[in-house]
Amino acid sequence: xxxxxxxxxLEDAIVAFSAGKFVLIHDDKGRENEVxxxxxxxxVTPMHVGxxxxxxxxxxxxxxxxxAASKLGLMYMHDILEHMATTAPKLSKLAFSRSPYGDRSAFxxxxxxxxxxxxxxxxxxxxxxxKIAEVCRNIDSDGPERFSYSFRAPGHVPILIASKGxxxxxxxxxxxxxxxxxxSGLTHSVVVCEMLDIDTHRALTIDGAQKYARENNILILExxxxxxxxxxx
Length: 233
Description:
alpha/beta; seven-stranded mixed sheet; 43% helix
């Protein structure tokens, strides 16, 4: 089997992802045209956070399912701003704006676990991420209660909420990575971080991401592989 096939095999990516390894996901040239470094939250250690910080360089976020967010009482930030705009009209333009590629962001609030200190260190962010995974894993038991008394906001780990129908409604990195988690048997939460280019100060190109993947033995997927698989099953 050639290197390129191995790097782009969805089946291999599912095996790697379910084993707690990073996978790179490129969304689409017509959308963000970015590559995100992705890993299941339950496996994250301070070393992983440090690796994302140094080698990816983007914003380290934790994505959760729409169902989990609803049970936790979390809202999209654009919905929060829309509500605030009723009493602070100057916020209305912020609330109703859309991205250049057409949809609204998946951002909700940002949090720190109460056992963290500043919340920003690799250790603190890994702890917060792990605890979010625990909450989502126990979402039908004491997860919501645990979330309310174990976290504080604002914090240093932004939460992303996947769309209700995942890839049926939106094809962002949030939905792509949550779908990868779903088919890997890990439905709790996922960490994503955009890969940036330190030389151009822009997003890392797909060619650059492929080179990084080869050099670091990390699997890389096109978003279309996940969307096509979703249509086929």
